Every structure is written in C-alpha cells, then in structure tokens.
Amino acid sequence: MSIDVNNESGTEVDEQAILDIARYALARMRIHPLSELSIIVIDAEAMEQLHIQWMDLPGPTDVMSFPMDELRPPAKDDDNAEPPQGLLGDIVLCPEVATQQGKDAPTQHSMDEELQLLTVHGVLHLLGYDHEEPDEKAEMFGLQAAIVDGWRAEKGHTGPSPAPTVS
What we know:
By secondary structure, the chain is α/β, with parallel strands linked by helices. Helices cover 44% and strands 14% of the residues. It has a four-stranded mixed β-sheet with strand order 1-2-4-3, with helices on both faces.
C-alpha cells in the first residue's frame, strides 16, 4: 500500500498513527495492496477554502475526501475476489477542527485520536460509503467504529473509542 502523509498545517500531528490506521483500514476493507492514497493535513484557513470551493459551505470542516479511481471493496461473501488496484484519492484533514471536536465529544479525546477517526472516515468515503441517509449512516459509522476499535486493540490502546464526531 502506498500512502503519503503530507503535513502542511503547521501543527504537530502523529503522522505515523495516521499512516498506520489508514493502512489498517484499507487492509480490513480488502483494498489491493498496490493501491495508492494521499493524506494531506492543512490548517483551518486552507480547509475553509476547500470547503467553500467543493461543498459551497462556510467555515472549515474536519475531513474531506476526493476519490480518484472509485475503488470499491470486494463483496463480503466473495472471499476469492481479486480487489482492483488503483489510485484511491486524497483525504484532507484539519487538526484545528479535530482538536475542537475531540474536546466537544461526549468521550473527550485528543486531537490525534480524532485525526485517526477522521482518517478512517475519509477512507470509507473514498470507498463509496456515505452518511446522508439513516441506514447509510448506521452502516458507515458502525464500520468506522469497528475499524478504529480493531486498530486500537491491535495497538494495545485501552481507553474508550471516541464517539463519531464527523459531520
């Protein structure tokens, strides 16, 4: 898996954890190991510009995903399916928004924990998941929690998982 993490935010973030959880999420979703992903960490001003440009919404947001090849995971019941390889796209994260969301969450958590959650959220968006409808939201957020919990268990993290705070 080729994953690039580029921190342009001016904020110190745990880039290795972002890389690791992205790799874990893609493996768990059975994405081809030669697929490529780019993760960019930017400040609130740059995120606000993207948010206005692409979503026509004011203010910065927590995470944005820009899919490229529209890769999809193989069907759950098809263990022999060869996943396609390609360019997944870009995930853009904003640590300033992540910091505030971590503080405001019912189970307060750190900026880095929120960025890990947002990374998984962004990966799922790149893979075609959405949360516009209640059933889509239940599926996506359930999968997101399972991936974050699985990664944290594998890493020996013992605290409660952050509740989904992404918009």
